[in-house]
Amino acid sequence: MREAWRRRLPRIALAGLAALTVAAAVGTAGTPAGAAEFDQPLSGTASSMWQTNNDVNALAVTGGVLYAGGLFTDVRPPGAAAGTSQTARTYLAAFSTSTGALVTSFKVTLNGQVRALATSTDGKLLYVGGSFTTVNGATHNRLVALNLPAGTVDTSFSANASSNVTSLAVAGSTLFVGGDFGTMNGATHARIASMNATTGAVNSGFTAKADNRVVTIAVAPDASRLYLGGSFENVDGAVHHALASLYPGTGAQAPLAAATVIPNTPDCYANVTDIVTSGTTAYVAGQGAQPGCFDGDLALNISDGSLVWENDCEGATVALAVLDGWLYKGSHMHDCAYNPGGNEGGFVGSLAQGNRVWYRLATQSLTDGSLAHWSPNTNGAGTVHIGPHVFATDGTQLYVGGDFTTVGSASQQGLTRFKAGDTAPAKASTPTAVGTAAGTVAVGFRASVDPDSGTLTYSIYRDGGSTAIGHVSAESWYWAQPTLRFYDTGLTPGSSHTYQVVASDGTLSGARSSASASVTVPSGNPAGYATTVLSASPSSYWRLDGTGTTAADSSPHGADGTLVGGVTTGATGALAGDTAVSLDGSSGYVSAANSSAAGTAFTESAWFRTTTLSGGDILGFAGSATGAGTVNDRVVYLDDDGQLATAIHTPPPSGGHTGPPPMPTLVRTPTTFNDGVWHQVVVTYSGTTLSLYVDGALIGTATGTQSATGSGYLRAGYTDLSSFNAVFGTNITGRTSPNSYHLNGSVDEVAGYPTALSATQVRAQFTAGLATHS
User: Fold this and answer.
1) What string of DSSP letters covers 503-570?
2) Which residues pair with 471 in a beta bridge?
3) Rounded to whole angstroms, how far apart are CA atoms 699 and 74?
4) How far, in Å, CA of 507 to CA of 499, rounded?
5) Structural domains in the chain?
6) Which one of 65-79, 620-634, 639-653, 736-750 scores highest in mean pLDDT?
7) Fewer CB within 10 Å: N-end or C-end of the chain?
8) pLDDT of residue 37
9) Which strands sit side by side in the sheet containing 74-76, from one edge to the other?
10) What is the pLDDT of residues 88-144, one digit of tens each?
């Protein structure tokens, strides 16, 4: 059985428009926090490193030298453009670990690519495996040992593999070799062999065999187990899909309690691409052949192969390394939607593959796989377009090889490295200043990015001054930058001001932001929130401040609602002095007591507050007052990571349409809103354009025709979202996206309108609500 993902994954989203959002960390006029935050040791900015002209597929480190092998035939200095300043190195090269410069004294000529590297226990030999058949002009079929540091062939080691060598691992005096070969040194050894690390002689007592490629081999630190990963289905005739645990001496099968954790079905085939061991745990990377299959990584107890944790994110994971108590991961992660707290991987505007955002470098907790704050990135531009292919570490630095041509914003091909250090946060976004009440201005801004720190402190400056008037602290990810607010109070009515923001990790600070537009301080308070709502002529307006099971309608239309299931009244409301209802996340919601016409245009609005990691519906239009309903449309919901989305179904084209239904018309927020404070969400539809507003700001629009016709029931807190699932529907765990269709949180001030409100009307409502918090 798979264990549930126990901690939140990163809030993966794109940085986007900065709505004025109530900060989870309230702005103060005190001093900023002074301690830097280092969740893990590495800088998010790469250090100087020579580069290659093609893919790097293998790395090994010893004696202050990094050895790299792959498809390349030339190397060049950092900063040199492709095809310039090249030095010939055929498939294998050596570089200084301290400077990243080419080690010119090491020059070995091979006639085919290098696929695997390993060093002897004493660091005096480099084992090289691949597709080559000659080394320095002499015959060496796919496996050779080189003397270090010179790089001369060790003639006492003799090996002959009948086909590709793709993996190597050393344990004491034993070299384990995996690949595509059927024979080793002329004897039958199907795809896995145990050899004397000094002579290359095959250990005949090791009899394991696999029916397909062995991609990766890892030995337990105490040499008690040998873990194999690859594309095989059987080891010694027993079913072992992609993963096996063996006893190193004989190759006999060892316990593997989680043998079925990586699925093997016709539409969900997966490979194991890398295994590393540390302490009592083996960390396993996977690459699925089909969308929705296992592409993530997992941790196993070495002794019995039982599952410790599993990360089901979509996007092939191909490289792992353990460094200073963290697991570093190379992948093209793009969709973690099915994990609690997981993300949609940057889908904005539609669910098309072209809208995915890929995150190729990350670090995870060894304990439970949750991600920490380290977010450099590469592209994927080579033979397989993955990006990173392989990791290595010398205990203080992480070396990355792959098919990339950029690292961060810099050109860098094939090879890079990261060492301990700190990177300054990005320049803060330009703030937005809004006068909310007499003598008060709310300053809103989007959080900044720091690729190696999490919680940042933001200092707010008024009118270009040198002394900050206040500070706000909040956690931010590269892919999910919350929007924050600071209230500047006690100002002179009628005066005008501008604001700037600086982000700091406690050690380094980003540049000061551009100044906001000038704002004039109000001399009076805006109209009350309820007055503002009613002036827009809602068809129903549930203030949700009563008791009992009826949601009284405050509009003139008598369109009451009903509290269904796990709903508690009297919760702290969105407006000062107001109350709301809280929903239990499993059965509670509010539904219209009577149906209403769908109409060709509409507006739905509500205030909500939640910290859920399982998503849930906030607003919707259903074909029945309770239950799943036959028609479910006009939804506003949270993804597992806290991104908001609104969607309407699009009718299929006329004329006998076949195939899957059309994708819904969808708008998703680029930032997250499950921060435990109140937000207002408003969705409008004009008959052609769907618009999503959060906290008074327009997030985005999409054009489409809605399917909903006839009549239905407005709901808050639950609508069946099964027809709005992410592009892959469900993943290998069977979970949906979002995990829950019921909202676990609070809702307040729910209103429906038979028209599309204007941006001015939406803004006026939010400002009226905001004034109660000033």
Assistant:
1) EE-SS-B-PPPPPPPPEEPPSSPPPPHHHHHHTT--SEEE---S-TTEE-B-STT---EEEESSEEEE
2) 28, 459
3) 47
4) 23
5) 8-36+422-525 (2.60.40.10), 529-771 (2.60.120.200)
6) 65-79
7) N
8) 44
9) 51-52, 74-76, 87-88
10) 999 999 999 999 999 999 999 999 999 999 999 999 999 999 999 999 999 999 999
Nearest C-alpha neighbor of 306 from the set 261, 369, 368, 275: 261
CA 671 to chain centre: 13
What burial letters (b/e) apply to 134-170, b meaning 16+ CB within 10 Å?
ebeeeebbbbbbbebbebebbeebebbbbebbbbbbb
CA gap 721, 7 in Å, rounded: 24
HEC readout, 639-673: CCCCEEEEEECCCCCCCCCCCCCCCCEEEEEEEEC
Q: Which is nearest to 11 in space by CA: 609, 676, 642?
A: 642
Burial track 570-580 (b if 16+ CB lie within 10 A, e otherwise): ebebbbeebbb
Q: What residue has token string 């019995």?
A: 304
Burial (Cβ within 10 Å: 0-12, 13-18, ≥19) of residue 467: exposed
What value does the CA radius of gyration of the chain take, rounded to a whole number of Å? 30
pLDDT band at 635 (very low <50, low <70, confident <90, very high): very high
pLDDT at residue number 247: 97
Number of other residues whose CB lies within 10 A of the CB of residue 242: 26
Phi-psi region of 473 (alpha: psi -120 to 50; beta: other; left: phi over 0): beta
Name the burial class of residue 656, with classes exposed (0-12), middle (13-18) and buried (19+) by CB atoms within 10 angstroms of its CB: exposed
Tens of pLDDT, residue by residue over 476-487, are: 877 667 778 899
CA of 742: how far to CAs of 248, 338, 739, in Å?
50, 15, 9
Place of tokens 């991961």: 329
Helix%, strand%, coil% for the chain, nearest 5 = 5, 40, 55
